[in-house]
Specification:
maleylacetoacetate isomerase activity; alpha+beta; Glutathione S-transferase Yfyf (Class Pi), Chain A, domain 2; 202 residues; 9 helices; Thioredoxin-like_sf; single chain; Glutaredoxin; 7% strand; Glutathione-S-Trfase_C_sf
Length: 202
Amino acid sequence: MMKLLSSPASPFVRKVLITLHETGQLDDVEVVPVSNTPMAPNAAVAAANPMGKIPALIREDGPALYDSRVICRYLDHRAKAGLYPENRMWDVLTLEATADGIMEAAVLMTYEKRLRPEAQQSPDWIEAQWVKVDRALTAVNALWMSHLYGKLDMGHIAIGAALSYVDLRHDARNWRAGRDALAVWHKGFCERPSMQATQPPA
């Protein structure tokens, strides 16, 4: 059985977990929670991924896979689920990359507040990360809504995970303001069983 090194609050892990639900592969993977931060990397994570990041998928028949985009692409291929359809491939990959950028910037904001001593924190740096998130959300709301209302693919999963993480850690930023279309879509997407089953602890 494969093992997924994970943390329940990680949006990148949640993206993989949603993919497992949507592709019917939950029974093939043991989800292994680990405590892992850039300042205190978990030994098992570092052994699986030299970057020391989660998620990492430990396989029985080869080296561990890491980076959520690699893992999700592998799981999609394994299940022949069609989450990266050939006729929309570049759109899906671009939307997934946009979502991953949102997650990366939002996670860095969280780390800055939680892992650095207050005297060493940089409000300007935090705001610079939020500018990336804000700009990406505006682009998704303006350019990608017709795609998001189409057949489920990895773009949907990634954006759903990204928006939910912003809600979890940066709700006070009120990302929905001025983005009614994206807010309505996200509300509906959160009703999917895969989203309900992968909600992180409060």
